[in-house]
């Protein structure tokens, strides 16, 4: 409504949270929100104007979300940014996971500092066309916990949006924390007027993750953010057979490494096996994984990325999985997903 949203537990005939009569009208008497509404600032947020001016040079904004933590959302954000930059797009990666900022490590930028100019805060650059901003650059000690309540987190997100000078960007990738909490509401509220292209939701195949992904899809629908697609990450452990270690269980229950014997046997007796990829289900996907859920909820399914130890290593070392042939299992899967994303929408 014109005067702001009405709280769910508000009295009848509530004037709205942004009305000049909020907390003061006769309808507000006895309302549990009366004191908060009366003392809250009214009218449009002046910082939204500054954010809109900053975002005017950013063509596209993509949120990377997950219902549950530990599903590889930040790894996907990092590799998506690397991939877009390798396509000669101007890319910014904004890390708003205030309590768990892992983007600096995944981009190989640990220990870097933020610099300020007359134009604002300068991102830390991996390449000339890939800039990064994170609270991780602001912590004096990387082991220091960020113990902040919602308003302080929201204040920093707002500061990132209005004070960071990105310059001309084709894509701003926003790596959000898991869930649907303050940070998510804030980033949508701050960016909505400037246009959010949509959100990519990352999950793992098992139901315990998909249950929370459904909530994430519901959140996007409620706040008017298009779901660009869902990525099923860690979709089975895949790696070359020769990368495995082979163990033999002894009578005493100990594990004996017989890798060299097995490899030597294959070289002599079955050399064609040396080029095989071995796959094993890590998470229970008996429910079908993310694809059936996407069909049920009417959102695109972008594809699956296997659990590839080489991709994990690339993330640990802060490098692109596309830079060499090491990530021979995961890189093609990620490439297909990114190509599908770019083909599905007009990114002018």
From TrEMBL:
Residues 1-20 are annotated as: Disordered. Its cofactor is [4Fe-4S] cluster. InterPro entries: Mrp-like_CS, Mrp/NBP35_ATP-bd, NUBP1/Nbp35, P-loop_NTPase, YlxH/NBP35. It is found in: Cytoplasm. Keywords: 4Fe-4S, ATP-binding, Cytoplasm, Iron, Iron-sulfur, Metal-binding, Nucleotide-binding. ATP binds at residues 67-74. Residues 10-20 have a biased composition (Polar residues). It comes from the Eukaryota. Binds 3 [4Fe-4S] clusters per homodimer. Contains two stable clusters in the N-termini and one labile, bridging cluster between subunits of the homodimer. [4Fe-4S] cluster binds at residues 14, 28, 31, 37. Although plant and algal NBP35 proteins lack the characteristic CXXC motif in the C-terminus, thought to be required for Fe-S cluster binding, they can bind a [4Fe-4S] cluster in the C-terminus. Also, in this linage, no CFD1 partner protein homolog as found in other eukaryotes can be found. Homodimer and homotetramer. Predominantly homodimeric. Belongs to the Mrp/NBP35 ATP-binding proteins family. NUBP1/NBP35 subfamily. Component of the cytosolic iron-sulfur (Fe-S) protein assembly (CIA) machinery. Required for maturation of extramitochondrial Fe-S proteins. Functions as Fe-S scaffold, mediating the de novo assembly of an Fe-S cluster and its transfer to target apoproteins. Essential for embryo development. This is Cytosolic Fe-S cluster assembly factor NBP35. It comes from Hevea brasiliensis. The lineage of its organism: Eukaryota, Viridiplantae, Streptophyta, Embryophyta, Tracheophyta.
């Amino acid at each position: 409504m014109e005067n702001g949203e009405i709280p769910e537990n508000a009295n009848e005939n509530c004037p709205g949270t942004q009305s000049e009569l909020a907390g003061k009208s006769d309808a507000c008497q006895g309302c549990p929100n009366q004191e908060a509404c009366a003392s809250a600032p009214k009218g449009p947020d002046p910082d939204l104007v500054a954010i809109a001016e900053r975002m005017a040079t950013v063509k596209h904004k993509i949120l990377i979300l997950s219902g549950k933590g530990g599903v590889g959302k930040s790894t996907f954000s990092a590799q998506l940014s690397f991939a877009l930059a390798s396509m000669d797009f101007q890319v910014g990666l904004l890390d708003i996971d205030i309590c768990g900022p892992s983007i600096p490590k995944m981009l190989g930028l640990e220990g870097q500092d933020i610099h300020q100019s007359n134009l604002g805060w300068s991102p830390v650059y991996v390449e000339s066309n890939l800039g990064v901003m994170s609270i991780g650059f602001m912590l004096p000690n990387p082991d220091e916990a960020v113990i902040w309540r919602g308003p302080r987190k929201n204040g920093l997100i707002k500061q990132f949006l209005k004070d960071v000078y990105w310059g001309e960007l084709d894509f701003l990738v926003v790596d959000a924390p898991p869930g649907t909490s303050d940070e998510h509401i804030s980033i949508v509220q701050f960016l909505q007027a400037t246009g959010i292209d949509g959100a990519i939701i990352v999950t793992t195949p098992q139901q315990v993750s998909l249950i929370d992904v459904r909530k994430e899809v519901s959140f996007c629908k409620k706040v008017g953010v298009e779901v660009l697609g869902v990525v099923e990450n860690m979709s089975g452990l895949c790696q070359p057979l020769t990368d495995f270690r082979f163990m033999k269980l002894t009578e005493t229950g100990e594990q004996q490494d017989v890798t060299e014997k097995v490899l030597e046997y294959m070289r002599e007796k079955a050399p064609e096996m040396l080029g095989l990829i071995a796959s094993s289900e890590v998470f229970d996907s008996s429910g079908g994984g993310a694809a059936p859920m996407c069909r049920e909820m009417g959102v695109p399914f972008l594809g699956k990325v296997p659990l590839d130890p080489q991709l994990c290593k690339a993330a640990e070392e802060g490098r692109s999985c596309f830079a060499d042939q090491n990530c021979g299992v995961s890189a093609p899967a990620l490439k297909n997903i990114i190509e599908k994303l770019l083909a599905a929408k007009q990114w002018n």
